[in-house]
Write a structure and sequence with these properties.
Chain lengths: 251, 278
């Protein structure tokens, strides 16, 4: 059974069709990258997977169970699927440590001391140990984004959704975030990643899906998709990317 | 002669700084001096002075007006606390989405429409005279209490809107992040949104605080012996208005520092936002 099964997912914003019958499945430990032009629906698709955005038709299943199934309870789904946003969305009024422990303590009923221990371990692991008591604004963008990743890992999710997590970063900070994602892949995390970093997608993805106007019009292993795209729209998209020099050597 | 590089520049800077200060000082002295001269030389001035600015009458009225002013301050502070809490509750009602909370949301909307639409003085009269006349069992029966309630109800409507704008100013990504972490709507408000919203609203709230301090004087129509009422009593007895000037001075002594504080906080807040926007 696949970890995530998406069936004929359709989503309208008002009159506008944003997702047009998406079918997508993600196996255990698989890393799927979503690429596509701005406005093609990548973020919306990601947010439908963990129920942040309601959709109109179709369904999404996690380990065979509909995400709106009662048995997930109110928080079960959010515990098992973590999401990281492009703009980090850390809470500016909370320290790094409190950002990370908020959900474990308030949502999952862990003891504060226990949650803080776990958070500190994660911070050390990602080289942010000395920033536990800092506020987000005191950190660099790359550090903030790493904290955001840790925050979503703090509840031990089985699936991680990443939405252009490097788009707001300076080039020299991108590497440190991408390294974390590679490490997570090594540890077997199932991930769906929206990215504009084609080199990274080629490097980390087991499969790349190209979205166009709310549809997945081509999906394949990155080697195949990047070297010999079949759909003319994919070809055009990749040509534009190559022209802008973003399909270079692996980062 | 050896000169350190920065020195000459610093001298010029000092002169540059002093010139505008001197100009404003001189112009202020000329303008206000002229006003004082013309007022003082007016034919009526001695009469005005004895009616409004008689030192003797001021000193005589000061103790009772001062006592009244303490009453005003008490009403002000107690009302402030009640308004801050009640308006926050209403703003939370207003912010809760979803069908279950619709009644609370509608209540908050109607409340704000109603109490913002009515003049505070009208409410003070209605509550301060009307409710005690009902002789309701188990409820306090004095005008001061009900007048205070009227002020709280009226100002809470404005304060609710201030809170609401503060809540709406918090970036929507914050609510989304909280939801994605599994926080309930209430937890999202409590731990993610409100702490940021409260910081946003401090400058606007301080404006209300200053306005309320003056509107406490409305309670004098109910016979509450606040500063204005005490001053009126003195005036009625002696036909001298200096007591009202005493009350005016007391109000200014309290509100002007508040106004400066408001400016200061607003300026700091603006800088904080500018910085975080970078
Ligand atoms: N909250 C919303 N209300 C209305 N329309 C929306 C909303 N969010 C997204 N859309 C629309 O849905 C479409 C898909 O948006 P989405 O954010 O999923 O695109 P995207 O592929 O992530 O683009 P980008 O690469 O720019 O992030 C866009 O046309 C967008 O205008
Ligand atoms: Mg997007």
């Amino acid at each position: 059974m696949n970890r995530i099964e998406i069936d004929k997912l359709t989503k309208f914003y008002g009159e506008r069709l944003v997702l047009d019958g998406i079918d997508l499945s993600v196996a255990h430990h698989e890393v799927v990258c979503l690429i596509g032009a701005s406005g093609s629906g990548k973020s919306t698709l990601l947010r439908c997977i963990n129920g942040l955005t309601e959709f109109d038709e179709g369904n999404v299943r996690l380990d065979g169970m509909d995400i709106y199934d009662e048995s997930f309870g109110r928080t079960g789904l959010y515990k098992r699927i973590g999401i990281v946003f492009q703009a980090y969305n850390l809470f500016p009024h909370l320290t790094v440590l409190d950002n990370i422990t908020l959900a474990p303590v308030r949502v999952h009923g862990r003891q504060r001391a226990e949650a803080e221990d776990a958070a500190r371990k994660l911070l050390d692991l990602f080289g942010l140990g000395q920033y536990a008591k800092s506020y987000p604004e005191q950190l660099s963008g790359g550090q903030q984004q790493r904290v955001a990743v840790i925050r979503s890992l703090a509840t031990d999710p089985e699936v991680l959704l990443l939405d252009e997590v490097t788009a707001a970063l300076d080039p020299e900070l991108i590497g440190e975030v991408l390294k974390i994602i590679r490490d997570l892949k090594t540890q077997g995390m199932t991930m769906v990643i929206v990215t504009h970093e084609m080199a990274f997608a080629r490097d980390v993805a087991d499969r790349v899906c190209f979205l166009d106007a709310g549809r997945i019009i081509e999906e394949a292993h990155p080697q195949r998709l990047f070297s010999s795209p079949e759909n003319p729209r994919t070809q055009k998209f990749l040509e534009r990317i190559i022209a802008s020099g973003r399909l270079g050597a692996s980062a | 002669m050896t000169r350190r590089p920065g020195k000459g520049r610093r001298t010029i800077a000092l002169k540059d700084r002093l010139t505008p200060v001197l100009i404003s000082l001189v112009s202020v002295i000329i303008v206000f001096g002229a006003i004082v001269y013309f007022v003082g030389s007016a034919e009526q001035w001695p009469r005005i002075q004895s009616q409004f600015f008689s030192i003797e009458a001021m000193l005589e009225a000061a103790p009772s007006v001062g006592r009244g002013f303490l009453v005003s301050l008490q009403i002000w502070i107690i009302s402030l606390v009640c308004i801050a809490i009640w308006a926050l509750i209403l703003a939370i009602f207003r912010a809760m989405g979803g069908p279950y909370f619709a009644p609370l949301r509608i209540f908050a909307i109607l409340y704000v429409d109603l109490f913002r639409g009515l003049p505070a003085l009208l409410l003070v009269l209605l509550f301060g005279f009307g409710i005690p006349a009902l002789n309701l069992p188990g409820l306090p029966n004095n005008g001061l209490f009900w007048g205070g309630v009227a002020l709280v109800l009226s100002y809470s409507a404005y304060a609710t809107e201030v809170y609401r704008s503060g809540i709406e100013a918090v970036h929507e990504g914050q609510g989304m992040a909280a939801k994605a972490l599994g926080l309930t709507q209430w937890q999202t408000l409590r731990y993610a949104i409100l702490p940021q919203a409260l910081r946003n609203v401090v400058p606007a709230m301080l404006n209300l605080v200053v306005a309320l301090q003056k509107d406490v004087a409305l309670l004098s129509v109910l016979g509450v012996r606040d500063a204005v009422r005490e001053a009126q009593i003195y005036t009625a007895r002696t036909f001298n208005y200096s007591s009202l000037v005493v009350a005016a001075i007391l109000f200014l002594l309290a509100t002007i520092p508040m106004a400066r504080l408001t400016d200061y906080v607003a300026r700091r807040d603006r800088q904080r936002r500018l910085q975080s926007a970078l």
